[in-house]
Amino acid sequence: MKRRDFIAALGSAAAAWPLAAPAQAERTRRIAVLMLYPESDPQGQIRAAAFRKELEKLGWTVGGNLRIDFHWGTGDSDWIRSAAAQLLTPAPDLIVANGDAAARIVQQSTASVPVVFIAGGDPVADGMVQSLAHPAGNMTGFTVLEPSLGAKLLELLKGLTPRLAKVAMVFNPDNLGNRRTFESAKAAGPKFAVEVTEAPWRGAAEFETTMTQWSQQPDFGLIVPPDPAINSQRALIIAQAARYRMPAIYGLRAAAVEGGLLSYGVDVPELFRQAATYASRILKGEKPGDLPVQLPTKFELVINLKTAKALGLAVPDKLLATADEVVE
User: Using an 8 Å Cβ cutoff, are 245 and 52 in contact?
Assistant: First the structure.
């Protein structure tokens, strides 16, 4: 073939080739997070920041290939159901449910959108997953529940206040894990010579009235188990406990740092970092039903010495030695 014919043939072939398609932009994925905290609560913001930062470490760009919509607030089951309906319109690529009640209601709302929960209940007994190792379905996540937590909270409070004779557990009635924590503490009551009564949270006004009644009983104390809705009320509970000089132990660290007597529980911001890891894996194609539900493995004890001194309590050296953090 002559050079002139070859070039002409090449030009004809090139004209027949399809134009190269432009590079397709990466689709932005969307995560909806149902946070049972007021947006103004610093603890809620700490958890949100831990979640965002971990996703960024894993290579996601918030505002670029990833969008996170936080739905903030507290309320009863009707409020949570309404919030769940909002975050599902339109359907996100993944939902993070913060709290036992939020996880259950989101489960009732969708069977197709993947869900990562951070909850306080027993996900198997509560019907959220088939098993811890193989959740199946569209849900997996992390739980703060440890079966003996109630007994441990009672033991620690009794160790710091030997004269303790009666305690009320202030808990969220929508949190099945809180109910189990109460049963654990109640069963351990005789061992520590303490009567344990239940006090479902029914609003600030009722709590303040009940605190007045409790304060008239000698050697009375409080147990406040982990729950995001109750934790959002911690400032009121701490203030009331201080007003009536009532010893109280909390299931979340923030309460002890902010003036509560002591706390014992899991590092919840760390659970949000782990939830981000699960979220990333699911967005990249893994199924939530194949990712095992994670149980708590590490608990932190925080003691507020300033509050102990205000209550006239001497913290035993043995208890101090086991504390992960001491607030002075």
Answer: no
Which range marks the domain in which residue 122 is found? 29-144+268-290
CATH number at residue 187: 3.40.50.2300
pLDDT at 159 over 80: yes
| 78-129 residue pLDDT tens | 899 999 999 999 999 999 999 888 999 999 999 999 999 998 888 998 899 9
Q: For residues 189 and 318, state if they share a domain.
A: yes
Which of 173, 169, 264 shows the shortest CA–CA distance to 223?
169
Are residues 167 and 221 in contact, defined by beta-carbon separation less than 8 angstroms?
yes
According to DSSP, the residues that pair with 117 across neighbouring strands are 97, 141
Specify whether 219 is located in the same domain as 280. Answer: no
Domain membership of residue 1 (yes or no) is: no
Q: What is the DSSP string of 16-79?
A: HSPPPPPPPPPPPEEEEEEE-S-TT-HHHHHHHHHHHHHHHHTT--BTTTEEEEEEE----HHH
Bridge partners of residue 94, in order along the sequence: 31
pLDDT at 76: 80
C-alpha dihedral over 108, 114, 116, 117, to 10 degrees? 0
- For residues 249 and 138, membership in a common domain is answered with no
Q: In a 3-state reduction of DSSP, which class is residue 163? A: coil
Domain count, the chain: 2
94 Cβ partners below 8 Å, 6+ apart? 29, 30, 31, 32, 113, 114, 115, 116, 279, 282, 283
